[in-house]
Amino acid sequence: MFHIMKPFLKITLFIALVSLAGCKEDFIDVTNPGALSTNNYPNTITDLEQLLTGVYGTQHSAGLYGHNIYGKGFYMWDHTADLSWQGTPTWIQLAQNNSQPNDGFLSETWRDSWKGVQRANTLLINIEKFRPKATQEADKKSLDLIKGQALFLRSWYYQHLITIWGESFIINNQGGDKMGVPIITEAATSLDQTQVPRATVKEVWDFIINDLKAAETLLAGKTWPGANEKHKISGWGAKAALGKAYVYTQDWTNAKTALADVVNNSGKSLVSFEVYKDMFNGKNEFNSESLVEMNLNVDMTARGNTENSMGTSIGMVLAPTYVGDNNLPAASAWSNVFPHAKNIARFGFNEGHYFKAGTTQPLATNVDPTYVTRSLQARRNKTVDPRLWVSCWQPYVDSMTVSSRKRPLSHFLDISEMDMEAWSFRKYLTIDATETEVNMANGNNILLLRLADVYLLYAETLIRTGDNATALEYINKVKRRAYGYPVNGASPVDYKSLTDATKAPDPVLKNDPLKYERWAELFGEGHWWIDVRRWQIGPQEAAYYQRIRGGAIQWEDTDYAQPIPIDEINSNVSMKQNSGY
Hints:
Blueprint: H1 7-21, H2 45-57, H3 70-77, E1 81-83, H4 89-95, H5 104-130, H6 137-165, H7 201-219, H8 235-248, H9 252-265, H10 273-276, E2 290-294, H11 314-318, E3 321-323, E4 329-331, E5 337-339, H12 341-346, H13 369-381, H14 387-391, E6 392-393, E7 399-402, E8 405-408, E9 424-425, E10 446-450, H15 451-464, H16 468-482, H17 513-521, H18 528-535, H19 538-545, E11 547-548, E12 551-552, H20 566-571
Antiparallel strand pairs: 1-5, 2-10, 3-4, 6-9, 7-8, 11-12
């Protein structure tokens, strides 16, 4: 996780504080003067830094980036993935846009997002309690930096809550009065204080934006060059997130100001394609493109689906499959999900199928050699979007490392449909080992916000504010990098207009370079579902993908918002369920 202190101790201290802070003074009698209590902890800047590490650490709880958020969350709702595993009905329903209030994966994401809010709130409360003790200027500055990070992180957890469970987005000044999520800023000291109703969508976004504005002010100009601090939120990271929140709420004037500042003054730049293609696989971390990045490390002592670990187990769910000694597919880990076949075509791949016609068994000996030749030529000539192979591994063309031995990727395990394009994921997978070899705790950093995302958000803002020419240039900057051209000069692959043809075959993306570039550039990074929601393209997306292996995709307009978990409905009498559930 983060290099400052072993996670188990950090989180244990923090949970102890949360438990104590949530009790009235007469609720518990602490008679041991050496025991941890709110009377003696936190009592120093170092104590507050420990609590801050716990707030960061919540990012890779099991319900978030420790395990669920991609393969059991965003990838399902936006059809980034299809399911090899067919043994969990509610998982299949997630991918059919038919989520259920009793879904355990959703419940864990809800729980851990609120855990992050609670921990940020507890830290923010204790910062103000400690402030009178901060008499030295250095301590006052440290306190403000801690507060800025805590405010950013609270806003980050709230964005998960509102973008997943908020009843609506604000679209053309409509939807702000719909149900959002509760706004909580204090640690509850009684059961009554946990019975909090849902604020409106606008109220929640205003709260998020206010936190980000305050964070940006407190962190302005701050960078973290130290090896153990690079994961911390910088002033530019906060400004970029603020600009993104303005885009999400269609505040185009403020979005333009914030994003232009990041684009022109942050010193950030797009990395080369050679750096880009491996920066999701544990290489080239904290590079010039990164704005907000989770720092992870392989942990052989604790699996990644727990806060006690320094790694993440996302890869166990996404893990590729390879050609075993018997020439049949073999799992490199759990290997539960694979890229939806429709996504391969969306990148412009139309080289046919890897198996010879009439194949009934997924044997490596049944691969058509001319397919391999065509695929390599398409990759070399870039007639297919090169980002396909950044995001995905191609069966029988690409290889992975298993126990220090190169193995070809296979038709994805347990896919009985021999005519299906069943590739494997590549982003956030371990390159030089299997996920089981790294104890289900890979150390690949997760890029939560990067400059390519900002460029495309800025382009969208420029379109909305009447500067199509500059918008097109920023869209082209992202595309040029993908094809290996210099970012700042015209290239043969440039779009000529905002309605130019893309690689995609479907009505949503084929003549919309902005939408296509956001889809292709950020594929597998957890942003597309939010774009689907705010652009209201759910029906069109469902029509394109049509079905998953478990059945037809079922779309209703109420599917934009996930159901509030049933446990929350039962425990909070003030909580109302989203429409349609």
